[in-house]
Amino acid sequence: MSHSRVPTTPWRFFAWFVKPSILPLSISTLGFVGTSAIMVAEPYILSQVIDQGLLAGSWEDFRYWMLILLAVSLCYPPLFVISLRMSLIPEAALRRRGTQAIADHLNAIGTGSKGNVSSGEMVNLATDDSRLVAEAITDLAIGVMAIAMFAAGTVLVWNIHPLLGIVLAAGVLLTAVVTGPLLGKLQHKQASYRDAVGQLAGQATDVVGGLRILRGIGGDLQFTMRYRLQAMDLRALGFRVAGSVSWVQGLRQSIPFGFVAAITWLGAIMALNGTITVGQLAAVFGYASILVISTTNMLHVSERIVTARVGAGRLAAYFATGRDIPDTGEDNIPHGDLHDPESGLTVPTAQLTVLVSAESVPAAEVTKRLTRFSESDARWGASKLADVKLKHVRRHIRLLTHEDYLFAGTLRTTLLTEDRTDDERAHSALHVVCAEDIYTSMGSTLEGEVFEGGRNLSGGQRQRLCLARAIASEPTFLVAIEPTSAVDAHTESLIAERVAAKRAGTGTLIVTASPLWLAQADHVAWMREGKVYATGTHTELLTHAEYRALTSHEDQS
């Protein structure tokens, strides 16, 4: 699925989102229309039971219409259950589609998301916004059912008496007139609330990443106070949203019941005057009750759509975010080593290289240049990396950092981003990173659920799963920054040994000062002030006192 095909306007995004599930949703819509026909038919059949059977004293007609009523009533439950299931089944698929599209687009735009989409916003896009849009789409079938019930009920009541039909239609019209402006205000407040949630979540995520620095300079208490004040403002905004929701829901329930009373009272007077029959009065009451159900459902779906429209707007804005690196270059895959002229670092094609540096920022900049997340003169074999199509760079050169995110999905979809039938590759990747505990904790199946952000995993498990995902993609070059910083020394030693064996013959760059990785390295580059200062094996570089102090400090920690 190409991210470029994702529309960047809210309503077109709705249409794109629903397209793969159009068949089950169409079936559920037809089923719900069928259930609405049954609901509308029952008051009419009941009126015939009363008029032609009971009041006319005809046992034959009474039995005939009662059998029809029984048959129709028996058809309703299974048809409704099947329709409801068909409408709910696509919801999970729709949410996975949204999550996958978000991940694909993020991979495509790379650092283009920086400054445009905060980490907190990314979390909300993948969780709340995708969920709200999926739920609104699955509710559309119920909305169609409500409209069909209203239309059929109004026509049948009109046939009983035009005045009753006018009153019935006026009830729905008045409900729409009263609640319409409230839905507009609700959308505006929902949009403001969603903006505030994204901003606050983004601040929290950014601060967690720099918590150690904040504590070091005494800024954690200041942030806590400011965060508390902003959270209180968000809570107040949430109360205002809830106020609008309560008005919509209150009117949704009260106005239709008022019209049930009005139309029943009017029908009773007509029955007393002989204008309509007693059976028709019962039918009018039944149709008025259907009005309550249809109006309530229509307003419920409208409320869902309003809320989802806000989420779709945020998603559409995200998909409108472009990459900051132009997708130019030749459509061919180069061969050879990776080389960064700015730092002097070379990553051989068939070796495990470890980059050691006391400065994290210059080391991170090198990895971005080598993976084309920033433009540079970096080279891949005889070709300049900037002259290679991004799709080839992203497929063959994989960057793994602490910012890598786990989207909601199964263990299979998390590990196998391309061929999702290659179970052997998934199991192999889990073994390489010593992640069998993750597999067993999820029921020993690749269909085990990974929560959004890996919330059902520990920090070490999340890190190992991200590394397993990178290993499973089998890139030509794997570039990883401190991929085992959250695991114990014994596990780290096993992972380093297994990664070295698994990726023998391919290029791997690990940025770390851990002696456990250095022990497995074919080639070590020691960088100072953003430049490669010395290269060799770990044993050879230990002759430098500064290097020895840097790596032995890592060993002590």
Rg, Cα atoms, Å: 32 Å
Q: What is the overall silhouette?
A: elongated
Largest sheet: 6 strands, mixed
Number of domain units: 2
CATH class category label of the largest domain: Mainly Alpha
Low-confidence stretches: 208-217
Average pLDDT number: 81
Helix content estimate: 55-70%
The structural class is: alpha/beta
Straight-line distance between termini: 44 Å
Write down the CATH topology of the largest domain. ABC transporter transmembrane region fold
Query: How would you write the strand order of the largest sheet?
Result: 6-9-10-3-11-12
Got a strand count? 12
Summarize the structure.
By secondary structure, the chain is an alpha/beta fold.
Keywords:
12 strands, 4-stranded antiparallel sheet, alpha/beta, ATP-binding, membrane, 557 residues, Rossmann fold, ABC transporter transmembrane region fold, transmembrane, 2 domains, single chain, 6-stranded mixed sheet, ATP hydrolysis activity
Give an account of the 3D structure.
The protein folds into two domains: 8-319, ABC transporter transmembrane region fold, CATH 1.20.1560; 338-407 and 458-556, Rossmann fold (3-Layer(aba) Sandwich). The chain is elongated. The protein starts with 9 loop residues before the first helix and ends with a helix. With 557 residues, it is of the alpha/beta class. Helix content is 67%, strand content 8%. The relative contact order is 0.09. It has a six-stranded mixed β-sheet with strand order 6-9-10-3-11-12, sandwiched between helices. It has a four-stranded antiparallel β-sheet with strand order 2-1-4-5, covered by helices on one side. The model is unreliable at 208-217 (pLDDT under 50). The protein has helices spanning 10-18, 22-55, 59-109, 119-160, 162-209, 211-216, 220-272, 278-319, 360-370, 390-396, 411-415, 423-432, 436-441, 459-472, 489-502, 515-518, 538-541, 545-556, and strands at residues 338-340, 345-347, 352-357, 379-380, 383-384, 397-400, 409-410, 449-450, 477-481, 507-511, 523-528, 531-536.
